[in-house]
Amino acid sequence: MNAGDIARFADVGRAAVSNWRRRHEDFPQPIGGTASSPLFSLSEVTAWLRGNGKSFEVSLGDLVWQRMRTTVDDLRLGELVGRIGAFLLFLQRDPAGWRRHGARLRAGDYDATAVTALSGPVAAATADLPGSPGLAPDEDPALLRLTARLAAENGPLAAFEFLCARYVEAHSRQLSVTRDDVAALMAKLVDPGEGTVLDPACGVGTLLLHAGVPLGQEINETNALLTAVRLLLRGTRARVVAGDSLREDGLAGELADAVVCDPPFNERAWGYEELAGDPRWEYGLPPRGEPELAWVQHCLSHVRPGGLAAVLMPSAAASRRPGKRIRGNLLRAGALRAVIALAPGGPDLWVLRRPNGERPPSRLLIVDAAEDLSIVEPAWRAYTTDPEAEPPGARTVRIIDLLDDEVDLAPGRHRPPQGGVDFVRDFSDALHRFREASAPLPEAPPALEMLSERQELPTTTIGELVKAGLVTILQAPARMTADEGPVPVLTADDVAAGTAPSGGTVLDPGLVMVEAGDVVTTALGAVRVVELPGTALGPQLTLYRVDPARLDPYFLAGFLRSADSSRVHPSSSRLDVRRARVPVLPVAEQRRYGVAFRELAALEDRLRETAALGETLIRLGFDGLVDGHLRPCGQGV
Predict the structure, then answer these.
(1) Which one, of 303, 396, 306, lies nearest residue 358 by Cα?
(2) One of this protein's Pfam families, by short name (predicted)?
(3) Per-residue confidence (pLDDT) for residue 568, from 0 to 100
(4) How far, in Å, CA of 58 to CA of 67, rounded?
(5) What mean pLDDT is predicted for residues 278-284?
(6) Can you tell me the distance from the alpha carbon of 21 to that of 218, in angstroms, rounded to the nearest whole number?
């Protein structure tokens, strides 16, 4: 079991497990895995949790999964998940066969002959699975018994989905799984009702789970098996074949009602040489470095005339020069209907329709949904109803305007114009907020008296203040993590930006809890006086707790900030804080300095906020002038 499994059992974050390993010498040692992803013994971990009074719960599903992890190594784990999936499909399809042939297993008879007695019935009940997985001669009988109990408790489908989720999590670096929200969106856009849906690069089947009649092909035999089990356990008439869709099309000649695809990106060895004369390249031979354009044409070749295809694409595919000829041909034929940006760095979603002899549309739908996927479906429905009208939250672009020397279809280059009423509201609001934020700035600097000669003040050092008991210096525990947990954590970014605590960690005796009036500094020189208690001090922060009766925290914060900027030792990249000098002044005088430092810090925060509001106002101003919602006037805006 890995750290994530332990965290799940104990109902804590992974950071808590890291803390246990670091702080408890008796925590079990890894028995496998790697330095970055160690594996531990289930029995040793549960014994340690019990011995340290930490509550935990190991579900039946976790017992099955951990049994699988100990049965084979990680390289063969997928094969075992597939065979267990076949066994679960047998349990669903032939419960009488399980009652008849599995009696010895249910009774606890674990010899190999009990498994052999099941092999034939399992193979007969799952003959439609790719690769005919069946049961291995040396299959673990105890694992089969546990799996049967899990299926009886939760149902075969839920049991296999649980095991698939664990498998994907354990191999997250090797498996690329389409986001659930994106998969759901793609299904809605191409919705063929109860028709057939093909995914020619189906992975573990995510895009086919809600298809009426799923068809799939997958180059990895193990993943093809997992997809087939997931679909057949849902009672569908699924067919999944294993093989390379581009080189060895296992569904050649078949036309689906719709196609969905999340193909591998940037795969150079996709078959450029051997497929140069392939009839699928109706819109042009894909360049060697544009494999995604091969997948687009493969998908179009498998959808009936008039049918839709939704294909995920790298964002660069919309504008790379080698692919401009194919993009242009797709536009001219009316095959490419929409380009949708799903995230700032990609992927994009291309929606295509195989031409059926009708007149192609004159406009392409462009949607930038990087911040809100919910705008895509209404925009698509509006576009299919009237391609000439402007859809909500998106825009259409004349195809003739795109057929230039670049054929650049990137949504970022074709942002929709600001809506009239919405733009007026947004621009007016931005203008009002900017004026409101900037109005106090002329009066903002604190009242500071200018002296004709520099005033020399008696000083001491932070180190002396610590010795005198006026200051206590604290730091967060070594190797503390602040990425998740119920205890809020003040991070270095929070201190620098003056924002609320954004980190989280687990409760631990070694945490430094921040109190009101504490001065907190970052390694880069940001300084804040904390006004609200109740958060933990984050990594790479230093806390100065003062005796408020003798030392003003804002006074100290101002000089700490100045000390960092001047550096006590210019030749050193680190600040020797204990040697930083602080004036020796009466508390009343310190508080006068403290008020001035506090007002300067507040001015800095207001300037930062005003700058952000100004950037928004400037962006809206440019957009409005370009789109025609604003125009220059003699009196200003």
Answers:
(1) 306
(2) N6_Mtase
(3) 38
(4) 12
(5) 96
(6) 40
Cβ-contact 141, 105 below 8 angstroms: yes
Determine the angle formed by the axes of helices 77-93 and 112-125, rounding to 10 degrees. 70
Region 17-31: what's the mean pLDDT? 89
CA distances in angstroms from 62 to 42, 58, 146, 162, listed in the order given: 10, 6, 10, 9
Q: Which long-range contacts (CB under 8 A, 24 or more apart) does 608-614 make?
A: 608/497, 608/498, 609/437, 610/434, 610/437, 610/438, 610/441, 613/430, 613/433, 613/434, 613/437, 613/438, 614/434, 614/438
Q: Give the C-alpha separation, 583 to 579, whole Å.
A: 13
The tokens for 108 are 């606890």
pLDDT of residue 569: 38
Instruction: Give the DSSP H/E element, type plus range, for residue 622.
Output: helix 587-627
Picking from 103, 212, 210, the residue whose alpha carbon sits closest to that of residue 148 is 103
- What is the rounded distance in angstroms from the CA atom of residue 182 to the CA atom of residue 163? 22
Amino acid at 512: V
Tokens of 36: 């970055």
Q: SS3 for 345-356, per residue?
A: CCCEEEEEECCC
- Residue of 174, 143, 170 lying closest to 159 (CA atoms): 143
- Using one digit for the tens of pLDDT, what is the confidence trace for 418-427? 555 567 777 8
Cα 155 to Cα 19, 89, 93, 148, 611: the distances in Å are 37, 10, 12, 9, 57
- What's the chain's Rg over C-alpha atoms? 32
Q: How many CB atoms lie within 10 A of CB 21?
A: 18
